[in-house]
Amino acid sequence: MPYTRRPFNYTGTLPNQVENDLGLADDNFDILAQAFVNNDPATGIVKNADMLDGFHASQTPAPNVIVPLNASGILDLSATYVKSNVYTFRRVNLTNATSDYMLQVGEEAYISFSDATSVPLRIATQSGTLYNLYIYLTSPSFAQGNGVIASSFLLPNNTSYTNAFYRAGALWDSAGTGVAYGGNISAFELIGNQFPANCFAIIYNEINHKSTTAISVHAGYDTSNYARWQHINCVWNDYTTSWTSLGTITFPKSSSGFILVRRLA
Fold it and tell me: Strand pairing partners for 21?
């Protein structure tokens, strides 16, 4: 049936209740009508239905908008976000960054490189932060071999500090060869004794405890092709220098690949 905005028009002689009640009913119907497009509830379209608490809904991420889940139930924010049916976190491409960027907790940086021996991360840091770092080499160059140790390092603040770091490492390969080593060095050692295919590290920046713990797996050196596992712990023996730039990764030979850094705390 068509909708009538003010259906009651009582004009009887009763002085109070019925007329007053019908007037209130008319007022309520009028208020209801104004909530719909064209003041007509028959349209079924509520005014400002695309807003929640004053915010519009949109499939395009923007300030002060509500982004809905997609057909798979995933919060698909944009191409720069990694999707998950559990959670979504932002990935920031810092490949061509020229200044340091402060990652937020849960945010991840992506840095690609090609034929490089030095890769600045361009990530700002401060005391009390914790990170995961992942290095993947798509075209690694093997070390020289013959007893020459070719390590990859993280230079905090993009600087080498002479013998200010202590390392403890262990290596084991599929040929049954193992070795443990330690000593002072001038930066955080991430990958030691020949080139790995990848490396995973935990980085902790606290003024009284600045450290890295790195695990790498790789194949071979010289003409061999052994599978290798390596674990290196490094501590920066300096409790006064502030670590403000996460730093630069250095390789002993030109390499290509990418680096991921995710802030955990």
Answer: none
